[in-house]
Amino acid sequence: MEQFSLQTPAEGFIDITAQVAAIVARSSIHQGLCQIFVPHTTAGVTINENADPDVLADMMAAFKQMTPDLPYRHREGNSPAHVKSSLTGCSLTVPVIAARLRLGTWQGIYFCEFDGPRRRNVWIQVIGGA
């Protein structure tokens, strides 16, 4: 397993496709799976379009609509971030073929920050045969 760290903005999406792809390329795995895990309860990871930045802006606007200001019981003031994290999830699995991530033409892997700015970690495990 490998990991890398990110310094995140207050809220937003960070394209981590290149970092994950580099880890896959360094591994000896020719065919298998790449597991991406974010060990945080107010952040997540997702796959979405990496060609038009308006998609990410639309996603953040939708998340804000889905997590209105409610009378949350959690007293830290970041309950919407916890909800958004659960909506995206904290892990992804991507196929590895010919020692490369097998993503669709327009797909990128994004770290999702919902409660920053913070120093965050991403864990990568590549599984399979050489």
Automatic annotation (TrEMBL):
Alphabetical list of SUPFAM superfamilies matching this protein: YjbQ-like
Pfam families to which the protein is assigned, alphabetical: YjbQ
Superkingdom field: Bacteria
Matches recorded under InterPro entries: UPF0047_YjbQ-like, YjbQ-like_sf
Family listed: Belongs to the UPF0047 family.
Range of residues in the leader sequence: none
UniProt-recorded name of the protein: Secondary thiamine-phosphate synthase enzyme
PANTHER family: UNCHARACTERIZED PROTEIN YJBQ-RELATED, UPF0047 PROTEIN C4A8.02C
